Structure formats: structure tokens, C-alpha cells
Amino acid sequence: MSPVNDRAVRAGSGTGTGARAAAAGVPGGSRRPAAARPAARPVRRRDGWTPWLYLAPALVVLGGLLVYPIYQLGLISLLQYTQAQVSGGEPTAFRGLANYAELFGDDRFWQVLLATVLFAAACVLSTLAVGCALAVLLTRVRALPRLALMLAALGAWATPAVTGSTVWLFLFDPDFGPVNRLLGLGDHSWTYGRYSAFFLVLLEVVWCSFPFVMVTVYAGIRAVPAEVLEAAALDGASQWRIWRSVLAPMLRPILTVVTLQSVIWDFKVFTQIYVMTNGGGIAGQNLVLNVYAYQQAFASSQYSLGAAIGVVMLLILLAVTLGHLRLLRRQGEEL
Amino acid sequence: MNLPVSLPARPLRGRVRRPWRLAAEASALLIAAVVAFPLYWMVLSAFRPAGEIESTEPRPWTLAPSLDSFRRVFGQQEFGRYFLNSLLVAGSVVIASALIAFLAATAVTRFRFRFRTTLLIMFLVAQTVPVEALTIPLFFLMRDFGQLNTLGSLILPHIAFSLPFAIWMLRGFVKAVPEALEEAAYIDGASRARFLWRILFPLVFPGLVATSVFSFISTWNDFLFAKSFIISDTSRSTLPMALLVFYKPDEPDWGGVMAASTVMTIPVLVFFVLVQRRLVSGLGGAVKD
């Protein structure tokens, strides 16, 4: 990355906070002088154990209910652990990597993995496209349409995943749903075919996750100083050119975070698939990793296989996050 | 209403030509209608009389609103109790995780100590853990501690899973309180605890509210833990499970499902409307820092 570009990004994000905070009415917005950065804080000797005291409750809870279960997950994935072991009928046996070998030798697993990656990618791209487009649209309209769109988006955002899933199913119901009537599809069943079922779930996922992107990117655009945009317009830049060469670079920190969040959320999608395709679709055609792991463990009592799938997911998401952290560091962001 | 949309119009907007702006506004309204339509249809269907829901010619209105579906929902055994359970679980999680996250966020922003950066990275990484995969070990953990079928089995894991994001998000708010204020408080003789709870806590409160939206929603929406940990004692069930009672894949009672969905969505909507102003500012802070 060129140093000039880098500086522009940082300047953009730097001015961003103050303006955004002030615009959105954060009380802290104006009281955020550079001196408040912890980096400028002199080291105090008497701090001693105090930070650890403050951290203690969080560390206890996270240790007991996050770190320890992760360790257990890893352990179970190495054991022979089925209904017989759970009920105590048979002793647990150490299987080493045999569960993983079984998993990787199973065509089903690769099929589900591929479906998960493609489905998550489609969801992330659609969510980002819709969210960004609507954020730009919000800046082009007057208060009333903006209020309407904002309220509708907040409503979609607030809808619980379970209710959202049942409502969308009902909308696309072959017998009583309004969508088939409107499109004249008769009693076409959306959940019968593999791709149309995935498409239906995708619609629901985009509907309930684009508001986060829209609101965040909108807040980011508002924070871009008007002079910058005006200067670009005066120089004869087209709208598209302004977006590509001015807004996008300035919004990059925000866009990276939003993308990462979407990737994490959509890769882990569970409720929508589980409810809308009734646990993974006909003959498991709509399984994604998360649902697959759950079905293996709780429906088939193959706890160790389920745990192994969980470990694979964990590693994939870990790789994505570490990649993101490296990106942040290269952009010179301070933690 | 105090929506972020009541901000002053951006100066550039004057440059957008009039027909374009009208087209943009028309499409914004149209999109708003499309986005709101599922919710409208949900509420509408909840109020439809039974015969009208099963109609093959659905109309976007109803001439004879009825409360039948709601009666069926509340008549279902212990629906009120499920509602209270959900409220209790979500409430406990929101309060506990806000307090714990506040302390932790203060530690990582107001102090410098060894492993600080490592901890921060761990908090970020912890957000990516697929909660659903941990259902398996958590199930055995709850079983070993005799916590299956209790509300605690829902509250504790949700506190743990909402903490990393809450801490991450609160950092910005704690950072925003100037150091000078802290020094002034100590000079005036305030103890560390007094500064923490009487000065810092009220100042960071808006951030806590924004953060609690996320823990509230994820807890309120959860149905995986409820499904997995509440296996035999249905009096400890929560709303999502009650909703799925009406949703049988072959013969769903759509009226009941929609009424139960409406009942389940309303508290979240109320919560959202109450905190939406803080939400946008909170996101701004979280995204930057």
C-alpha cells in the first residue's frame, strides 16, 4: 500500500469518529481529545493488581463457559463418544484423529462444507451490496423517506431469527402465501428444490442482516467531510467515481469490520436453516456445517463427529479473524 | 422521534438534480414498504379470523379482525410462563453482562498491564467462536453440574457469549471519558471504587445501553440452548420453543405461529425503539475503535 493512500485512510477514519459521534449525539463525541488515548497515559505503579481485579469476573465466566467448553469440544472430537458412552454403558475410548479421518473421508462432509462456504459468500455479498446501496440512498433523500426506510430496517433488524424464519416461510407458503399469488406461481413449493430453498433462506438472512450494514455505513458516510465530496464534484468526478475513489477508501475501516462481522454471522447461520428447511432440508440437501454438527451430535448421537465438525468450523473462523487482525495491523490501527 | 435520520441534510444534496431526488425518494419509500412487508403480514395474519388465513386468495387487509389466534396462543398451557422465563433470562443476561463487561472494558482501556494486547485479541477472537458447536460440550457441562432444565443453563452461557462483543464495544465509550476527569476525582479525594461507580459508570451508561441491545437480542432469540438444555421440564421453556409448538412442518397453525411471533417480536421492537439513538452512536464507536 502506498504511504499516501495509507495516510488518507487514517485521516479519514480519524476525522470520522469525532464527526460521527457528534452527528449522532454521543455525549463523549466532543470530549475525545488526543490526550485521552491510553498510549499517552503514564504508567502508574500503584495500578498493580487492580486491572486484574476488574477483569476477574469476565475471565472467570469466559474461562468456565467459553474456554473450557472449547477444550472439551476438542477433547470429545478425539474420543469415541456416542449414546453408549453418554449413558455410561461403555467406557470412553480414545480414538485419536480417527473421527477426523472418518469425517474427511465422507463425501457428505465436503458437500456440506462447500454448500456452507458458497451460501455464506452469497449472503455476505448480497447483504453488503444491499446495505451499502441503501446507505447511499439514505444520503440522497429528505428526512421523511429516510425515516421510513430507517424504521423499516430497524424493524427487520429487531425481528428474532425464529420469527423472521417462520414469517418468511409463511410469505412463500405454496398454499396460503401472498408471494406465490403475486407472482402467479400456483402451488410451487420453495422449500422442495435445493437451490430455491437456499434462495429463500438467503432472502431472510439478507432481510435481517442488511440493516446493520446500512446503519453503520450510513453513519460512516455522514462522517466524511462534505468539503471532500464537494471538491471531488467540482473536479468533475461522476457519482460512481466519487464512490469508488473517495468514499470507498475513506470507509474502508468500516467496510472491513462490517464484512468480517457478516462473514462470521453468515458462516455460522443456524436458526434460519434449521427452522426454514426443517432441520436441513429434504434428505439433508440444505445442510450447512453448523446444522450438520448439531444433527450429528443430537439427532444421531454421534457426539464426537459433531464435535469434530465444530472444531473444523472454529479453525476456519479463527483463520478469517486472524487474517482480519493482520489487515488491521498493516493499516496501522491501534488495538 | 430521535432517529439518527433527523440530522441536518448534507450540503451536497442540493446538487442532486430534482427528478433524480424524487426518483430516489420514491424508491426509498418503496424499499421501506418491501422491508416492512413481512412484519406487516405477520401482524395482519395474527389478527385474521381462522378461515381467512387458510384462504387461497390472500388479501393485504382484513375486514373482521379477531383475537382468536392470540387466545389460542395464550391458552396454550403456560405460555405466560414461557414469556416470563424469556424475560427473566434476557434480563439477567443483559444486566450481568453489562456490569461484567463494564469492569473488563475499564481494565483494558484505563490501565496498561502485561498481556493487555493479548487479552484484547482474545476478546476479538472469542467473538468468532461458533456458539452452536459448543452446545455439545456445554450440554455435558450442564449435565455434570445438574443444571439441565434450569434457567441458569440458559443464562450463564449467554453471559459468556455476549461478553467478548460487549467488552469490545464498550472500550470506545470508556476511552472517551477524559483522563483529566479521573485525575480530578482522585485529587478531590475520591476512592477508585467511587470514581468507577459514581463517575465513570454514569458517563459510560449510554454505551452500556447500546451494548445491551446485542446481548438482549441474542438471548431473546436463542432457541438452540433452550431446545438442547431444557429437555424434560417444559415449565422452564422459553418463547422460541413455545412458538415452534404451533409450527408443525406438515400442518402448521399459521394463525398461531403469527400471533406467537407477534408476541415475541414486540418486546424486541420496544427495546429497539427505546435505545435506537444510542445504538447508532454505539456502532460508530465500536466500528472505529
3D architecture notes:
Chain A is mostly helical and 335 residues long. Helix content of chain A is 72%, strand content 1%. Chain A has a two-stranded antiparallel ribbon. The longest helix of chain A has 34 residues. The N terminus of chain A is likely disordered. By secondary structure, chain B is mainly α. Chain B contains 12 helices and no strands. In chain B, helix 3 packs across helix 12. The relative contact order of chain B is 0.13. The N terminus and C terminus of chain B are likely disordered. Chains A and B meet through helix 1, helix 2, helix 5, helix 6 and helix 7 of A and helix 1, helix 4, helix 5, helix 6 and helix 7 of B.
- Give the number of helices of chain B: 12
- Percent of sequence in beta strands of chain B: under 5%
Largest sheet of chain B: none
Q: Helix amount of chain A, in percent?
A: over 70%
Order of helices and strands of chain A: HHEHEHHHHHHHHHHH
Number of strands of chain B: 0
The largest interface is: A-B, 127 and 125 residues
User: Pairing-aware structural class of the strands and helices of chain B?
Assistant: mainly alpha
The fraction of residues assigned to DSSP E strands of chain A is under 5%
What radius of gyration of chain A results from the CA coordinates? 24 Å
Membrane topology (chain B): Multi-pass membrane protein
Domain ABC transmembrane type-1 (chain B): 83-275
Keywords (chain B): Cell membrane, Membrane, Transmembrane, Transmembrane helix, Transport
Family (chain B): Belongs to the binding-protein-dependent transport system permease family.
